[in-house]
Amino acid sequence: MNPSANGSPRPDDDLLVDFQKVVRRLLEDLPGQDGTGPRLVDVLTEHLGTEPHLLAVVGLPVPPHRLVDADIALAEVSAADPDARVIGIAGDARHHMTLGDLVHMRHGHGVPVGQVDYDRMATGPGKEDRRQVVTSGVRLFRFGGVPVAVRQQGVNPQFGREAGTIEVVTADRDVSDALLARVQELMDERSVIRGQVVTFAGNPYGPGMAGLTFLERPDVDAAAVVLPHGVLDRVAHHVIGMGEQREALRNHGQHLKRGVLLYGPPGTGKTHTVRYLLSASPGTTAVLLSGGSLRYIHDAAKVARAHQPAIVVLEDCDLVAEDRSFGMGASPLLFEVLDALDGLDADADVAFVLTTNRVADLEIALSQRPGRVDLAAEIPLPGADGRRELLRLYGGHLFGAEAISAAAARAEGTTASFAKELVRRAVLAAALADEPPSDDHLGVALDELLSDTHRLTRSLLGVGSGDDPLGALGAPMGMPPRGMSRPGRSVGWFGYSPDGGITSSG
């Protein structure tokens, strides 16, 4: 107790002493702090050859979507030492204290060794694609002959931890740096994200972090994509073919990074075209973003850069063209997207594919950022031949050629989504009548969809108003004109496709 200026004890000193006693007692009473079992600091001291609180702790933050990669990398690095082991940390202190905090605790018996905590995390889209990942534990092994201790922590929003951490303590700081560099290399080389189709989603505990979800890769044949002659080949050559010729392009000093814009009215097949591109590029990493998830464009760009060759799909990007609510700072999110396109190295084998229903909303922004998009392909409403081909694709095995031709002629101005729904309605009508599908059912279904009572349905299928060839029906109240959608709305990855899988409005 320190005396005051006149030599008497200061009242606040007594308060401080009492407070220290209370804190010490609370820490000693934490679950698992009963002194049973070896102390963490003793185990670390024995392994490292010196007291750990005298050593620097070097940390590496790990985003939530890279926790599995980090676990795989650390397991491989430590496996080089046959005597490697993993220990746990007992007590609640492990949830909210760093490794430096834990080894500096001097109260009572210290923090004891406990069980290792694990989480089952996804490594792919299948139900069995899972891995047991260390979310609280310390790996003890030798790296380059030097003993190291690596503390591994996962995400725990309950305790305010929205990113994982790798903490390394060893007597040689250069070894810590070399170890973390090797871990980062292996995280990219062994990544479970490489060659997968993934999307980002918001963390339910807060807006600041991005989670990652694996999706099945679509299976779409080129014959199932009905577009004007040459359009699909042109897009595929730019997105896929350029990557297949990467060495030739690099040898001649040409850049690989590319941007493709697919534009046209809703329901014409933009998303279905994207699904074909994903299907035709097995082994390519694909990141899909739409609507609000476009805020994770920088995370997506990092994933693409680390897992080349890659495709980044930005669905319905016009919906955020003027929306500042998702942006970082004052810039609209669209400019964040364009900046991300420009942020990659020119020789990065990454293709950005943007889709939009309202190209006019993007034209000014794109013209102010020249070079981000180097191919624009229109996906228009299908013509007469296209409508016949769509009806054959969806219902050629059910209806006769004459009935399909007649229906295609009557359905002028409709979309690919309309053709898909028309065939489904015909099959439903036959099922309700307990009959096999016939040409009559196709005609009845078409009459129903073209009737005035189905204006809203047609609009939702992408059939608009204005110069509507179906008879100037006009748009339903509050609905936008043909080829337009309400600003600020996105339907994400939902809609129609012949083969199922990942779908969207499009």
Topology readout:
Layout: H1 11-28, H2 40-48, E1 57-62, H3 67-79, E2 85-89, H4 93-96, H5 99-104, E3 113-114, E4 117-122, E5 130-143, E6 146-153, E7 164-170, H6 173-189, E8 197-203, E9 206-215, H7 231-244, H8 246-251, E10 258-263, H9 270-279, E11 285-290, H10 297-306, E12 310-315, H11 333-343, E13 350-356, H12 359-368, E14 375-378, H13 384-395, H14 401-410, H15 416-432, H16 439-450, H17 455-460
Parallel strand pairs: 8-11, 10-13, 10-14, 11-12, 12-13
Antiparallel strand pairs: 1-7, 2-3, 2-5, 4-5, 5-6, 6-7, 8-9
CATH homologous superfamily grouping of the largest domain: P-loop containing nucleotide triphosphate hydrolases
State the helicity in percent bands: 25-40%
Structural class: alpha/beta
What's the assembly state of these chains?
Answer: single chain
Going by CATH, the architecture of the largest domain would be 3-Layer(aba) Sandwich
Major sheet: 7 strands, antiparallel
Brief account:
The protein is an alpha/beta fold and 506 residues long.
Key descriptive features of the protein:
disordered C terminus; 7-stranded antiparallel β-sheet; alpha/beta; 17 helices; Rossmann fold; 506 residues; Helicase, Ruva Protein, domain 3; 7-stranded mixed β-sheet; 14 strands
Describe the structure.
The protein is of the alpha/beta class and 506 residues long. The protein folds into three domains: 29-189, no CATH class; 197-378, P-loop containing nucleotide triphosphate hydrolases (Rossmann fold, 3-Layer(aba) Sandwich); 384-460, Helicase, Ruva Protein, domain 3. The protein is 37% helix and 19% strand. The protein has 17 helices and 14 strands. Strands 1, 2, 3, 4, 5, 6 and 7 form a seven-stranded antiparallel β-sheet that branches. The protein has a seven-stranded mixed β-sheet with strand order 9-8-11-12-13-10-14, with helices on both faces. Strand 12, helix 11 (333-343) and strand 13 (350-356) form a beta-alpha-beta unit. The longest helix is centred in the first third of the chain and has 18 residues, at 11-28. The chain starts with 10 loop residues before the first helix and ends in a 46-residue tail after the last helix. Residues 31-35, 205-209, 326-331 and 465-506 have low confidence and may be disordered.
